[in-house]
Structures are given as structure tokens and as C-alpha cells.
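Let's practice the habit of predicting before peeking. Look at the sequence and jot down your guess about where helices and strands might fall. Then scroll down.
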Amino acid sequence: MSDRLDLRDACAARAAWMTTTVAALARLESPSGDVPRLAACADALTDLMREIGADVERLPSPAGEHLRATIGTGSRQILLLGHYDTVWGAGTVDRMPVEIVDGRLHGPGTFDMKAGLVIALTAASLVRPQLHDVRLRCLFTADEEVGSTTSRALIEAEARDSAAVLVFEPALPGGVLKTSRKGVGTFRLEARGVPAHAGIAPQDGASAVLEVARQVVALDALAAPSLGTTVNTGVIAGGTRTNVVAEEALIDIDVRVTASAEQQRIESAWAALTPVDSRVRLTRSGSFERPPLERGPHVAQLFALAQRAGASVGLDVREGSTGGASDGNFTAALGVPTLDGLGAIGAGAHARHEHVEIASLPERAALAAAIILALDA
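Done guessing? Here is the structure:
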């Protein structure tokens, strides 16, 4: 027990470095899709990983470089997963300065999720001399905030080679870990009807606007709140003038599910959509971008290990769920033990009050280090 409790002292000794490093990374703005700025942030992360003895590979993609680093030579791999792209455009730091106020480090990308990357690297550096049967694989990607289109195959390949995946996305309030996340689907339905003069010959027309309105009602009926399934028509557009029966219209839909069975039900219903007015042609596009992270036995067992590891460093570890998705959705869906929310405590992801609680940074690193050592044991 005393050896594990020493992890907290070791992390506390690095508290100032952790805060300074998170601030420096936040000032290196890295908006999704801004390849030059992503490269500058990747440079800094590469230096940090090499400083702790990692072998670093920079894997190019159209979205920016994905960083893959290896620490240790054990036969079993533990994947430390995160992303360094943010939702904030270039110049945001001029309006949202990186600054410390009342024990909180504010700034774009601090909470989601550059503090999580620093927590992961701090934990990795501490456990490196103590690893026996485990090697650590850090995978920091450049496109999570825009769907992980170029990194998904890489994430899944690394997960298949791993005994467990630790995801350093932000924690739930109070430091609660995430053992379930909703799957996310984005869909578009386009309707093409028959235009006509709305006053002279409305009977000759087939309104695309009316059709999508009817489809909105039908799609809303697919929601199952008691099962955690939500269907939200967030965008509707169509028509040209009030005196014209609309020829074209579209809707964009967000779907969230907690279970793969619900994903399959929604996909089947989506494929079976037919127009109410047979003169209107419907075109469907979109899909589930991320499957649900379900709290199956593989997740529950890893959480139980995390609870014991947390107790060994004097921390009470709890679990919860969220409607948002992460790259951990991909890894858990493969059946690989996955634990999410190991990143920072704070608030304001994607919001102007984004911040991390500075005092919590060493504790989060100590928890991650204890979990890694428990997996090694």
C-alpha cells in the first residue's frame, strides 16, 4: 500500500510542471482540420513523449499527424488513448486567454483534452521504471472532434493488440469515470417533390416540405427515452417561395443510443423509410459514426480493477455514463476492456468557460499510474 500511496507524492511533486505544460499546449491552438497548427502542437507533444523515453512515430493523414508512442517492452500492451485537436478556431486564445483564476486553468482545449494528455504522460513517466509484463502504447490523434474519420482504423488496430484501453477524455463532475457512452449517428433525408403554383394548381404539386414534415414526426416516434434512445431533427430546410409548392427539402437528424440492439433497430427503420406521398422521392445518407460504449463484463471488470487501484492511492473511484461519444466507443465495441474519463476534472468542454481544476491534476495522474501498475500485476 505504501508504494502505491507514494505515487500521490510523486505526482504532487510534478504539479507545477503539469499545470505549465497544459497551459503551453493550450496556447498551441490545434483546431481540427488546421494541419499547420496541428503540426506545431504535434511537435510539442513529440518532444514531451521523447523526454519520458518513448519511441515516437508520426503518422501522416489528410487530417493531420497521428502520434503513436511506445514505452516499455512487455508482452502485453495497454493503450493510452487521446486526441489533441480541439473545436476552437485559430485566434480563440485572444478572446479566451489561457490563465489561472481561483485555482482553475482556463483556456480553449484545456479540459477537452490537453490536460488529459498531460495526465497520461505524467502517469506513463512514473510507472515506466516499474513495468514488467506491460508496454504502454500512447495514441494521440488529430481528428476526434470531427468524427475520427482518418484515425478510426488505427485506433481499432491498436485496440485489438491491447489487453486494455485507458481513455483520457475529461472526467464526469467530481472525477467520475465513464463506463458507458451513447453511440452517435448523423443522418440526412432529402426529398424531391413536384413544383407547382400554390394558388393556381396546387393539386399538381407534391410538396417536399410537407413530406419531410411528415417524416420528422415518423422519425421522432422512433425515440425510446426509457432505453436511452433519442432522435433529434436539428436542421430542416426547403422551398423557395411561399407561392410555390416546394420541390426540394431536407432534414438533418442526430440519433443517440445506449445499446447495439437499439442501433440496429434505428438502422433498420431508417432503411425502410418510404414517402407518404408516392410522388416524392426520398434520398437517405449518413450512418452511425460511433457505436455505443456499453457497460459489458469487459468494461465492468476493468472498472472494478480501477476501483481497487484507486483505493491503493487513497482515492474513491466512481462510475457514470454520458450522452457524448469518444474514441473509446470504438475500442469497447470490439470487446476490448475500455475505461473512459481518466482525464481532467473541470468543466466547459466546447464552451467559453472551459477550465480544469489545477489541484486535481496530480491525483488524476496518480490514479492512472495505479491502474497501469495494477494491470501490469
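How did you do? The CA atoms of residues 227 and 335 lie 21 Å apart.
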